[in-house]
Amino acid sequence: MSGETDVKLTADVLVIGGGPAGAWAAWSAASKGAKVVLVDKGYLGSSGATAPGGTNLLYLPPDKEMREKAVQQRMQSGGFLSEERWIHRVLDQVYENLELVEQWGYPFVKDENGVTQRNHLQGPEYMALMRKVVKKAGVKVLDQAPALELLIDDHGVGGARGVLRQEGRDWEVKANAVVIATGGCAFLSKGLGCNVLTGDGYLMGAEAGAELSGMEFTRRYAPAPAFSSNTRSRLLGWATYYDKDGNELHGSRSGDFLAERLLEGPVYAIMNKADTPEKQAILRSSHAIFFLPYDRAGIDVFTQPFPLTLRYEGTVRGTGGLRIVGDYCETTVPGLYAAGDAATRERVTGAASGGGAFNASWAICSGTWAGQGAAVHALGQGAGAPERKLRSAGRYGLADGRTNLTTSRADTQELIQAVQDQVLPLSINYFRSEAGLTAALNKLNSYWPGVSEQAPESAYDRIRAREAAAMAATSRWMYTAALARKEKRGEGLHVLAGYTELDPNQHHRILVSGFESIQVRPDRTFLAGVAAGSHQGTEQGA
Amino acid sequence: MIELVSAERCIGCNLCVKVCPTNVFDRTEHEPVIARQSDCQTCFICEAYCPVDALYVSPYTDEQVDVDERRLAEEGVLGSWRATLGWGPGRTKLAAIDQTPFINRILPERPIRAAGISDVRSPATS
């Protein structure tokens, strides 16, 4: 694969991913004096779930009482799998960083008393600004440069390799610390901005030996137009729902209402609770992206019915990801850090969805911390990465002579479709049951050998083959973890039919790792710091 | 998904090729071509970045549709997303007039819950 025309770089810190978490990580590492390279599958500034739409932020003034209340609410909704200290850390850090965003030139609005409102960011503006900030900090940015695999030695991670997909060349970056900020995995379900999120970082991290945590908390679908991509649904709060005959349906965008109704037939909405031109104008100047597909389809959403669907959001609005074990978002692999949706968000969200304000704030904070940690780690290493004897960590879905193609060649597109058929249906993944998940997992396990029977040749095929492997692996981790949590915890980000109660013996996180056979084990380390209190005494489980 | 690169409007800056998150376009000697249309995720990013309003992303994610460039231009659809974002010279950015922080002030009234659960009206309705 390597030729004379390949791009080879060395740096202190390599950041993989150019959404908010990657951008903050790169800025943060560069601010600590590290030489930083950032690579993105697409383009730093437009890639990922944040850029096309908008996002809410946690922005609580440093009022002790207000913050403590917010922390306690989150502990409760997350089924006490989160950690008070980490929620406080996020509230503190995001408050500071949003002030930076304003100093860098983001035009936050003010209310009538002149108070700046820093609790919402328009995605295109925010990420265009972050690109400028990252480049100004001296970070070398490679766009359209998907990473394919990590480089490792006995001391841990030392860089990565990938493709410059518009130039047909490979890249290799040696760096003593790597931050994985590749986002979550939404299985190409065409949610807004989410088709770049195929679990690539989970695959690369796990191949290097990292564990994943919280993968059962992935039961999350977003309302969207039946014909389009827009999964930003907050404005449906002004909608009334109808069946195909125009009968009103009573329910809201949260809970089981839409999933149940969509299994019975089409569901329509009209935004008729925004019943004055003034209200309609306010909504149009908030989530403008919400209106775009309907306007273009010739539908007046305030007076005409529009058809809805649910698009699967996997770990993007789910909560699971690479396990992080330290304050700087270290994984268990030396030199490897995870940020944003690539990392588990359980430390702040527990069993609840991070969707919206929590995830956006987590991306900012985890990116900042991972960048700091990576910089300190890299700058503290005696030997530079170029002197290390690094080898490829990639094992699945790569065409480099390491796979023995004695049998059939698997078709990548068919493999992806087969995985989607087990992951996207509401009947399997929303209405979860032991029988349903077991049958799906058995199928997914049977597809697994196929990931290494792909025979990609072009740059396009090589990237797709790794995405297919990443989605196949992610689906198996998800369902393996889901079958291991036989209880109802939190607000329904995982359920299993027949298990309707919280089980004190399952007050742990669930870790999964490995590929051929997936290891599962409980993690109670986060409980060690909890003072003996109301829920501590229930910890008797093995 | 992306349906149009206007040969008439395009200045060949290739910005759409650069910024597309899913690498849908290929550059050519003339205007970029839509090379991998089925990879388009309908995120409208390319339209936002196009400095001459030469692109059209249809709202239909899963099906190809025929588009009439002249009609899209006449109806002001070409460039409309960029205009909404307030990108381009002389425009006010959407971010600067963002009403999201205030939308809870116009929340629809909710029915009052049964006594015993909460007899307090939603603050947004007061």
UniProtKB/TrEMBL annotation, chain A:
Endoplasmic reticulum among the record's keywords? no
- FAD-dependent oxidoreductase 2 FAD-binding domain location: 12-217
Q: What's a Pfam family in this record? A: FAD_binding_2
**Superkingdom, taxonomy of origin:** Bacteria
Which keywords, in A-to-Z order, does the entry hold? Answer: Flavoprotein, Oxidoreductase
Q: Which Gene3D superfamilies match?
A: FAD/NAD(P)-binding domain, Fumarate reductase/succinate dehydrogenase flavoprotein-like, C-terminal domain
MF-aspect GO terms: oxidoreductase activity
Matching PANTHER family, A to Z? SUCCINATE DEHYDROGENASE 2 FLAVOPROTEIN SUBUNIT, SUCCINATE DEHYDROGENASE [UBIQUINONE] FLAVOPROTEIN SUBUNIT, MITOCHONDRIAL
Name this polypeptide is given: FAD-dependent oxidoreductase
> From what organism does this protein derive?
Paenibacillus nanensis
TrEMBL record, chain B:
UniProt-listed InterPro entries: 4Fe4S_Fe-S-bd (IPR017896), 4Fe4S_Fe_S_CS (IPR017900), Fe-S_Ferredoxin (IPR050572)
A Pfam short name? Fer4_7
For this UniProt entry, the molecular function terms from Gene Ontology, in alphabetical order, are: 4 iron, 4 sulfur cluster binding; metal ion binding
The residues that cross the membrane are none
- Start and end residues of each 4Fe-4S ferredoxin-type domain: 1-30, 31-60
Instruction: List keywords of the entry alphabetically.
Output: 4Fe-4S, Electron transport, Iron, Iron-sulfur, Metal-binding, Repeat, Transport
Name of this chain's protein: Ferredoxin family protein
State the species of origin: Paenibacillus nanensis
At the highest ranks, the source species' classification is: Bacteria, Bacillati, Bacillota, Bacilli, Bacillales
